[in-house]
Amino acid sequence: MREGVSFGDLLRRYREAAGLSQGALAERAGLSTNAIGALERGERKRPFPHTIGLLADALGLEKAERATLVAAVNRQEEAVGNGPAPSFSGPTIMAPRLPGHLTTLIGRERECASVFHLLSQPDIRLLTLTGPGGIGKTRLALAVASGAQSWFPDGIAFVSLGAVANPTFVLRTIAQVALPQDTNESALREALIATLVDKRLLLILDNFEHLLAATPEITALLLACSQLKVLVTSRAALRVSGEQEYRVPPLEVPASGTTETIEALYQIPAVRLFVARARTAQPDFALTPDNARAVAAICTRLDGIPLALELAAARAQLFAPLALLGRLERGLGVLTGGARDLPERQQTMRDAIAWSYDLLTPEEQLLFRELAVFVGGWTLEAAEALSGDAHTGEILDLLAGLVEKSLVVAEVGNGNPFGETRYRLLEPIRHYALERLEESGATEDVRSRHAAWCLLLADETMTALRGPGQIAWLDRLERELDNFRAALGWAFGSGRADLGLRLASGLDRFWHYRAHQSEGRRWLERGLAVTGDVVSPLVRAHSLWLVGYLTFFQGEIARARAYFAEGEVLFRTLGDRNGLGMILDSMADIAYVERDYPRARALQQENLALRQAIDDQWGIAMATMGLSLIALGEGAITQARLLIEESLALCRAVGDPRGIAYMLLQLGWVAMDEAAVERVIPIFAESLALFDRAGIVVGIIDCLEGLACAAGLCAEPLLSAQLSGAAAALRETLHISATPNAAMYDRHLALVRAQVADEAWSAARMAGRSLKQDQAIALALNFERTHVQGSAAGSAVREG
């Protein structure tokens, strides 16, 4: 090989000489295909030494070839002016004392690079890697240290502190590693300083979390020894001046319910680690179409904690992935049997977490147990509401302590609707907290308080979903959906049907707007099946309306009618005009889709009168909207437009974004009936953008159907087929069949369908069905942009 060849070119040549594809080399080395590609293209200028070693091993390189590969990296480092390049050898005064490992570090390329960069900074002399038990702090520290040996000509000293029980023994333990001979106890600090004062040495202190009281001794060494650097692994930061903390994250996991290909899944670090360790237990284990979803779910379930993944993978010889997933759902019992060369606390996941739990104060332990009932995270306000008067200390301080000790994860901002910090327990840690809560005998009390907090959110929902804060509120409910599911499961499971129905019906139109119709129906029908005086009449009546509403949109008209009939009787008996108005509005929808326009109008006019009597401006807007649909169905286009514009103005006045979007949708259908191409496409597109911003999937589908018909007006029948295919696939996936605009859609689409041959239409429909929701939206909005630009260009030509 020529001396001047780049590292990327050299790697590619070695790979091709070995007859390996990028994917095959990635699998051998425990890296990702993307990482190999980036290295070969020269996009990664500073490959981590540990990565170079993995590649050399995977390629089976001889000593001279390895040296050539390392030399290529060194030249690259000098070219970019990035400081001294790390190497695998170099003279040292103190020989490196780094524990070895018989397994490959997988999926930590990014973290290695980040920590390596921090360690290379001259002004960072105390670097602490923090994270919960089993997250891989020690392995990461060792991988970084092995690549940084040339930066520390006087050596690297690794000090294991896991077995040290008393902070006063920390210096003695360091001295056993760093001093050449035994030293009197009283002179330890002075002897260490005398030995290390002029040494460029890296001191690794492993498992420091239970010895934080010894922190002053470490800072004293750093102050006295200007060339010394200390790399600490701990479940809690030392919290001293000059400390740089690096929180070691879990491995990346697949998205929940992912449908990624085998190749794409294998690029995800948690999956790669699980597969590699499963092969250790079961040599013929492979990621296949049959087990891929279960493996992905296991990785997600374990929140990417490496120890948990390794313990689970070790069971591959006993359980297929699907069976293993079922075991994991029962708790931590299957996560045992770790390697015998691991510390005892890391041989089971339960012991790894218990080590941290035992370091908490009694107040922190109490809060930790209580927080186990939250699923999917919580806010500070939620934790305060849950805890009530159970704590003498400030919840914020206690929560901060749990974050500092790596038992709780804080997600600052993270795109949530109100900009709040959210907190969560990684799933294995949450299971441990649940076990401890169960042991304490307080489970029922804490779950009752959790359900009460969910009910407070539910009680605010109906008003919130009518006003200007609707989108943020929908986002909040989506974010808390797992908490509602937990509360609903507990309420119904413990015989509290009234509470369960209050929670389920309190989410109101959220179930429909965010395409959770089937789930909402299941909860509501479960509660309504309870007879007798267990459920209050008002709660039952509202639940009957909501389950009928959801059932209607899933196309089960007869069943929806039965729910509405029972609900109407209850609301009339109770004298609840608001509830009766909702029932009448929904019954009018049924009459409308059945084209019984006189009955639909009579029901909607009664609804309008009720809304006017109680001065419900939002309800008036909805009733007017219903009347506009009836006029549109009857072909009274002028009257329909007037009613739509009136409803649109009312929706704008109350600040209802969903109502505004829906009225724009109806204006689009008016323009469709008038064949007004210049108006119909921008109106449908504006409505689509509003629905997309609000995350209201039902409205997105309606708009895709509208734009599919509009594409036909523009003589683009194949685009029409694609958009209609995408809409149909979404309807089927989400089990949403009924739409008030169905008759208009069917009529206009039939006209487009006649413009193109069957084979071309079917192929385009199939292509549309394969689109994801965001892809379909992008296709539709791009059609609108192209059309507007084309129309503008045409106008300019005509004017010219």
What does the secondary structure layout of this molecule look like, with pairings?
Blueprint: H1 7-17, H2 22-29, H3 33-41, H4 49-59, H5 63-80, H6 109-120, E1 126-130, H7 137-147, E2 156-160, H8 170-178, H9 188-196, E3 202-206, H10 215-224, E4 229-234, E5 243-247, H11 262-266, H12 269-281, H13 292-301, H14 306-313, H15 321-328, H16 349-357, H17 362-371, E6 378-379, H18 380-387, H19 395-404, E7 409-411, E8 422-424, H20 427-440, H21 443-464, H22 470-479, H23 481-493, H24 497-506, H25 510-513, H26 517-528, H27 537-553, H28 557-574, H29 577-593, H30 597-613, H31 617-634, H32 637-654, H33 657-673, H34 677-694, H35 697-713, H36 717-734, H37 742-753, H38 758-769, H39 773-799
Parallel strand pairs: 1-4, 1-5, 2-3, 3-4
Antiparallel strand pairs: 6-8, 7-8
Helix pairs in contact: 1-3, 2-3, 2-4, 4-5, 6-7, 8-9, 12-13, 12-14, 13-15, 17-19, 17-20, 18-21, 21-23, 21-24, 23-24, 24-26, 24-27, 26-27, 27-28, 27-29, 28-29, 29-30, 29-31, 30-31, 31-32, 31-33, 32-33, 33-34, 33-35, 34-35, 34-39, 35-36, 35-37, 35-39, 36-38, 36-39
